[in-house]
Amino acid sequence: MFKVAVELGAISHMLAAVHDIDDDTMIKLRAMCTDEVKRINGIINFEKAVRYQRSE
Fold it and tell me: How far apart are CA 56 and CA 13, in angstroms?
């Protein structure tokens, strides 16, 4: 779990460095991700996330 947390931290910082996301969008994103993780029991599917982001 420690190594996964380190990698997630690195990815989070890289994304934050290259994207300018306002506070309201970040709050909505956090809520959406919380609901999604509850619904899918924590099993993240990258391909589904890409399709979702491309659909908007």
Answer: 24
Give, for 26, the enclosing helix (H) or strand (E): helix 23-40
* Interval 2-31: pLDDT, tens: 988 889 888 988 988 999 889 999 899 889
- The C-alpha atoms of residue 56 and residue 52 are separated, in whole angstroms, by 7
User: Cβ distance 29 to 21 under 8 Å?
Assistant: yes
Which of 33, 40, 2, 1 is closest to 15 using CA atoms?
Answer: 33
Torsion angle of the four alpha carbons 37, 40, 45, 49, in this order, in degrees rounded to the nearest 10:
-60
pTM above 0.70, yes or no: no
